[in-house]
Specification:
TIM Barrel, alpha/beta, 17% strand, 3-stranded mixed β-sheet, 480 residues, 8-stranded parallel β-barrel
Length: 480
């Protein structure tokens, strides 16, 4: 049976960018060096590419807002570069020119009827803070709190939705675990877990600053955007695979969500597994999980006005003996694979498996939102195409978007999950970490060969605009 349904009234259609991926202007307006500036200058990215100019969004506010108006989105999510406002990471180094850039962007959005959603931290730490240990140094909690306080006071009269962090798991995993991302630390035994510990405490402090000092006058919301795959047991008939799939989710999503939404502490499965490995591997401890004090747990619990979700792909998970190897697979005793039927993308980790989004939304609703009911915002969903592939006719992205938007609608209408926003990543092509500019996530094509960095809408931009305009989706499914 074919039914036609629409998203609920007031549903937020969004697209996004991240500061270091698009802004450029790496030294303009007094901006300080970030870990991604250093990463590029040390030739760590594809073909020695850097973020020096990127998409030059620092100088193209009006152009970018023009593109947003063309898409007809009612919401735009972007991140602030901490070092553009506090070049050293501390308030004493305030750059007024940096703050004015974000004032200009926020004002232009509001004048165009577009709601700004601001992420305080999307991976680009001021290099001076990194030199002091970065997220492994407990003193960063106070520095982040002060940075958040400044942003709330400066922009909060106009910004009503804040993400403290976006995809913090990637910071812990790739920034301090595998070292694939800036700052390139390879220490999954201690640093990775310490980073998560300090980011959770930083998130909580920022939320409390807003709650205590700004909520009454500004009336906004503060939450966090957590990234997670969906994990399906490779053999659902094997209890050990079912348990392994759950461990996969606990090591990725639960690591952050459980302390905030459940009880102020890490998931029991995570703690049990790490303790198991400590006993099994006395001479080569593969993981050391810090402990929250009772007051820290109390401080962290409940510090989210919404559940932000960045989701791109799924995995089939099977049980293995990971031995004494550091990292989630070794410590978690699981192995991941993909279904051969899932369409591949230009990224070696993103495969299109739209039904995973619906399953994950149901899981989150049941696991984390049954006590405190807050809305879910899909804060990031998208896939890359190759640099020289279908430049404008990005049919694979259209099919990906169609599938994932469809599954979000099923979660809302059939499963009763309270999803209030869908964010397509991203507004334009940008710098994608170690891959540089070789992978294109954008709804708009950016010509990185031209110093003017012109943008051109792809077919996916027209497709998304059409969905928004109609706010109607033809859902092919059996009526239950």
């Amino acid at each position: 049976m074919c039914i036609s349904e629409s998203f609920p009234p007031g549903f937020q259609w969004a697209t996004s960018t991240e500061s270091f991926k698009v802004e450029g202007g790496w030294l303009e307006g007094g901006k300080g060096e970030t870990i991604w500036d250093r990463f590029g200058h040390e030739h760590q990215a594809f073909e020695n590419q850097t973020v020096d100019l990127a998409c030059d969004s620092y100088n193209k506010v009006d152009y970018d807002v023009y593109l947003l108006r063309g898409l007809q989105v009612n919401t735009y999510q972007f991140s602030i570069s901490w070092a553009r406002i506090f070049p050293s990471g501390h308030r004493g180094s305030l750059s007024e020119k940096g703050a004015l850039y974000y004032d200009k962007l926020i004002n232009a959005l509001i004048e165009s009827g577009i709601q700004p959603v601001v992420t305080l931290y999307h991976w680009d730490l001021p290099q001076e803070l990194q030199d002091a240990g970065g997220w492994t140094n407990p003193s960063i909690v106070e520095a982040f709190k002060d940075y958040a306080d400044f942003c709330f006071s400066r922009f909060g009269d106009r910004v009503k939705t804040w993400n403290t962090f976006s995809s913090p798991w990637v910071v812990s995993h790739a920034g301090y675990g595998t070292g694939e991302h800036a700052p390139g630390i390879k220490d999954y035994v201690i640093s990775s877990y310490q980073v998560t510990h300090n980011m959770l405490k930083s998130h909580a402090e920022a939320w409390h600053v807003y709650n205590d000092n700004y909520r009454k006058t500004q009336g906004g919301k503060v939450g966090i955007a957590l990234n997670s795959d969906w994990a399906e047991p490779k053999n659902p008939a094997l209890p050990e695979d079912v348990a392994a799939a759950d461990r996969y989710l606990q090591f990725m999503l639960g690591w952050f969500a459980h302390p905030i939404f459940v009880d102020g502490d890490y998931p029991a499965e995570l703690k049990t597994q790490i303790e198991l490995k400590r006993n099994k591997c006395p001479s080569s401890e593969p993981a050391r999980l810090p402990v929250f004090t009772p007051s820290e747990s109390k401080r962290i619990l409940g510090t989210a006005d919404f559940f932000g979700l960045n989701h791109y792909t799924s995995r089939l998970v099977s049980n293995i003996d990971g031995g004494c190897t550091p990292g989630p697979q070794g410590v978690g005793d699981f192995q991941e694979s993909v279904d051969p039927s899932w369409s591949s993308t230009a990224s070696d980790w993103i495969f299109s498996a739209p039904s995973g989004l619906r399953m994950l939304l149901r899981y989150i609703s049941k696991q984390y939102l049954n006590v405190v009911s807050v809305p879910i915002y899909i804060t990031g969903n998208g896939m890359p195409t190759e640099y020289g592939g279908d430049t404008f006719n990005d049919t694979s992205r259209i099919e990906y978007m169609r599938g994932y938007i469809n599954e979000a609608l099923k979660a809302i209408l059939t499963d009763g999950v309270n999803v209030q926003r869908f964010t397509v990543q991203s507004l334009m092509d940008g710098f994608e970490g170690k891959q540089g500019y070789s992978e294109r996530f954008g709804l708009h094509y950016v010509d990185f060969e031209s110093p003017d960095r012109p943008r051109t809408p792809k077919q996916s931009a027209y497709f998304y605009s059409q969905i928004i305009e109609q706010n109607e989706w033809h859902l092919r499914a059996r009526a239950c």
